[in-house]
# Entry
Amino acid sequence: MIKIRNLTKIYSPCTEHEVTALDNVSLEVKKGEFAAVVGASGSGKTTLMNIIGCLDTQTEGEYFLDGTDISSLSSAKLSRVRGEKISFIFQGFNLIPTLTAEENVELPLIYRGVPAEKRREAARLSLEAVGLSMRADHLPSELSGGQQQRVAIARALAANAPIILADEPCGSLDSRSGGMIMEMLHSLNREGRTVVLITHDNGAALTAHRQIRISDGRII
Amino acid sequence: MRLFRALKNIRRGKGRSALTLCGVAVGVFAVVVISGIGVVGTDRVTSAMVTMGINSALVEASETGGSISLTDEDVTAFSRLEGVNKAMPLMASPSETKLLDVSRDCYAWGVDRQAKDIISLEAIHGRLIGDGDVEAHAMTCVIDEVFATQSYGRSNITGKKIRLLLEGGYYEFEIVGVAKSGMTGLQNMMSGIMPDFVYIPYTTMQDITGRTSYDKIALLLDGGSADENLTSDLTREVNQLKSTKSGLTITNFQSQKGQLNNILSTVTTVLSLIAGISLVVSGITVMTTMLVSVGERTREIGIKKSIGAKNKDIMWEFLLESVLLTAMGSITGIALGTLVCAAGCIAFSLPIAVPIKSILLSFCFSSAMGALFGVYPAMKAARLNPIEALRT
# Structure
């Protein structure tokens, strides 16, 4: 599913601020796998996630997503790949504050051109799946952190992307809500989705099938 | 759906959106009101000139023409020329009146019943000079309203007698009617400071003065066709009829009307352009608002991009918002401007005129401004790097 070979990412190349965030990284995540990328802050794990998530492009090396060479794609095609293949779960939830829970869940489908009727149906089902049907009309500010993260998971569900990239999904949550979110990620994985969890929390990482440890931009 | 979301975003920045909207509305309001004044002004001038006798013309001997006598045959011949509706003999004589022993300078005109149409004479009391008066060489007259009020303190003085000094002797006339004072065709063609006018049958005037010819012939031109070409054509034709080169001249108001309208439309255009600058200013306000909005929503843009929004999607979102904002502003401005125009027309009891052309123009112009000044912020939003946007 995800195939990265000899990938290097350098920020501000050829200047005095040059930073090598990823150094000759190679890794592979198979379809249906639950992989955890573990590392301290500043180790390059977020850079790795941005590249896997097609938000950023590498300086050198190759990245194939589902057999497609990502570095060859235009910005519009990258957006499309993001919309169709990848769902993000962020530490900060990243819900749009002015939209209700249901509207937030619908959003990825809007950009895919799904008709309104179908969108609403998908959003309703997804919210039900995360147990938030009762909160569909609430704004993110009216929800707790755990509930907001569940809305984000519902958004990923509605988008129905094969890959879920979770960047410290439990970072801002108490342990009970965090546990609930982890459980949901696992159940998504059991349904056949590929999950890449990025975390500095060893406990959470250990629940994954495989741990990829990263330090100073290198996989160890 | 897109439109609905754009509206929702506009509502979000309530205060700021409202202020921007006001800016656009004021700009459009200014344009609409100024062009409204222009339209009403032009209408007024045109209608004033029609009552002033825009369609009448005066044939007379030119200053260099010497003595050319105009006769009944000429009246008939002139009335048959193309573009001429009616022709009337006209005699003029400076005179003096005595009414209640008060002497005043006046100007006596010999006319016939066509005076009503040709020189826009209008009776407010009694009647005008009719065929009967002309045939009977009657000692009847019609006087000015101002003259009547100044001598009697009221305008209705029909039936009173007036003494007119003509050819060295006083003649008594019966006042059969009082004519509305003001911009009658003759008063205009005489131009300058006008004495009071007294109208008598032209036949009576001929009897008293002993002249058989006429001084002038007044023409009523066909409405609408009266332009400068017609005037010069007619001048040539009347000279041909009288076999002179340029002994006769024709005066009418058509050219003056054209000039006046030109001045008016230039003034209106210049003022509208100045008001148009306010539209540009409001366009810049829209841009500022949208830029602030992009700054505020950077994170949101990042989120949207991370879940699959293309640059195009983001671009349209902001562009639609700015166009909608200006469109709403200009509709408000148009509504207010039209209201003020209508209220002004009612207040000055003028016929209500709405400058439709300028309304459409300013609406299109300001919406185009919204689009133009919205493009930069929208592009800026669309080009945001999703990672940096998410980091904010």
In short: The beta strands of chain B are 56-61, 84-99, 102-111, 123-126, 140-144, 161-166, 169-179, 196-201, 216-221, 248-252.
